[in-house]
Each structure stands twice: as C-alpha cells, then as structure tokens.
C-alpha cells in the first residue's frame, strides 16, 4: 500500500507501517498528556497503542503462518490505523484450509487473552475487568494488562462478525463451501454480510455512530468478495488461447514513436508488442508509457525510447484465470503469448475484462443479486487481503 514503510522482517515476512499510524501515536500521547499534564501518562498512551498493535500484528501472523503451512506465501503485513492487513498471495480455496487460516487470527488473540487472564488471576488482581474504560489512563501495570486483555476480546468479537471482509465472513463461507460450491457459498455469505451491514448502519443512526462506519465497511467488503469469486468462476474452464489476440500491429524498436501515436489515435489498439529486426519481442509499449514519453517534449523519439521490459510471458495452454492473475500481479496491461517457443499472439487486460463482461451476462442471470446490471465488472484485485 502506498505510504507504507517497512519497519521489520519477521519470519520471512515484511512488516510495514502506514505513515498515518504516527498520527494515532501522537494523538494518544497528547490526549493522555492533556489529562494529567504528565509526560509519563503521554508515554503510557503511546505504550498502550503499541501494545494494541502488537496484538494486531500477532493476529495477522496467525493468518500468515497457517497459510504458509498450506503453501501460501504472504507478501507483507501492513499496520494501518484501522487495523492490520496480511497480503496473502491467494486465499485458499479448499474450505478446510480457508477455515483454518481465517480462524488462526482470532485464535492468537484468544491465546493472548488467556495468558493475560492467567497472569491477572495468578497475581490476585482480577478486578475491574468490566470497567476497563474507566481505568484506561492509569499507570498501573495491572490495569494496563486488563486493558490489553479487553482489547483482545474485542478483537476476537469484532473479527468474528460473520461478514466479509472480517475473518468471520471467511469462516462462514468456508463452512458453507463444505456443502455447496464456492460461488454459491460466497453469494450466500455475502448476502448475510450485507444484511448485517444494513442492520449496523440502521442501529448506528440510533446509537453509536461507529456502527455506521463499520456497516459501510462490511457492505463494501461483501460486494468486493462476491465479485472476485464471480470473476473467477466466469474464467474457469477457459485457456489463454480462448482470448488470444492474433490480429495486431507489430511495432519495431527503430520506428518513430509517432507511428504508435497514430495507431493509438486511429484505431482500437492501445497496447503494443515491440519487436526487433529479427521479429523477436523485446518489450511492450503501453498507452501510459507512450503518454509519459511524449510529455518529455523531446522530438524524434523512437519506439525504443518508450518501450518497457516484457512484464510476463504467457503460454496458450495456460488456464485463463491463472494468466489473468499473473498479469494483474505484475501490473501488466499487455503481454506476449507463446505456444512453446513460438509467438502465438498477445493478451491485454482489457481483452480479458471484455470477455468477463460478455460471459458475465450469462452468469448474471444466476447471480442477479451481485450485479445491478448497470455496473461494469472490475477485475479482481491483485492482492488478496485478509484482516
Ligand atoms: Zn483476521
């Protein structure tokens, strides 16, 4: 995520923090400091936020390490003011694996809570657990432990709300997918999520306004999840060769860049493969790169001045879903497709999206609750995140 900075690498996973997190630290410092005009209280506030975020980080590591057991890597874990995000390479599709990965996060918070409870009980200080809010600014380490205990319970309850993008939504989908196919399970889970979301928003208007925020968050998460799964189910069974473009203009490295501009303005082509004199693909030219090159204002530019390295190469026999995911992962708008060693054609993201849109019309009849019929399908995001 833009604005995030790596602060550590633990168990082979980069830990990143979004810069806005500093605002939270500052805000807590000053709101504690203001109460007592005591720097120590301010530092207590900072310590409290850091402790909460260590619990959130541990939660994300719960997801990431269980996912690793199923051969799924985690690109990074990012801490944001609203919580943590573990960017898993993919969400496991086997229901049992998804269930375990989703449960692993809250399970970590339960373990932390049990540990703190044991500590409080052993020291005979198990008091005021219900009134944690009143004691939040006390400097006593016992109160500190009680507050962190309460925070972990809240994290468990909040994350187990059975709605995407919460862990509870994935738990629900995984349980349903043990009986139904994944697309149907997702539709059903997303429906429950949206119903809950509307309920939260409604309750929020009459009570705690935070519920409105949470409701909207869940509503958007549920919609995004059902789209992603539907996109996948549309592409299933097709190969890259089914969407292959074989009719396109070849651009050569030595040609004037103006030729690409003319092609772009005159026709349907927005992305190009760039060839050398031996007719070998040496790069790609995207509309973005073309515009960027032109904006430098230099005259007499050649195609090679705007050419980008080939982002990814696909094979005609590859499942379309896999090829499309690879393209999104590498941010490739266009890529060459080979049949063994031979160039067979090219594929653009736009191509695949059109294909999804056309195919989606049939799928939409079965899933009209996902689309309102006017919206365009968005590609599934390249990073599958879990909270
Ligand atoms: Zn989680």
Descriptive report:
By secondary structure, this protein is of the alpha/beta class. Among the domains are: 157 residues, no CATH class; 110 residues, CBS-domain (Roll). 52% of the residues lie in helices and 14% in strands. It contains 11 helices and 11 strands. The strands form 3 sheets. Strands 1-2-3-4-11 form a 5-stranded mixed β-sheet, covered by helices on one side. α2 packs across α4, α3 packs antiparallel against α4 and α6 packs antiparallel against α7.
Q: What is the straight-line distance between the termini?
A: 14 Å
Helix count equals 11
Radius of gyration: 26 Å
SSE run:
EEHHEEHHHHHEHEEHEHEEHE
What proportion of the residues is helical, as a percent range?
40-55%
Nearest-integer average pLDDT: 79
Which geometry do the CA atoms define? elongated
Structural class: alpha/beta
What would you say about this model in short?
The chain is α/β, with parallel strands linked by helices.
Topology, pairings included?
Blueprint (H helix, E strand, L loop, with lengths): L3 E7 L2 E6 L2 H16 L2 H31 L4 E7 L2 E6 L6 H28 L18 H19 L7 H11 L4 H25 L3 H26 L15 E2 L4 H10 L5 E4 L5 E5 L1 H9 L18 E2 L4 H10 L4 E6 L2 E7 H18 L17 E3 L1
Parallel strand pairs: 2-3, 5-6, 8-9
Antiparallel strand pairs: 1-2, 3-4, 4-11, 6-7, 9-10
Helix pairs in contact: 1-2, 2-3, 2-4, 3-4, 3-5, 5-6, 6-7, 7-11
Bound molecules: zinc ion.
The site of zinc ion (ZN) has 7 residues, from helix 2.
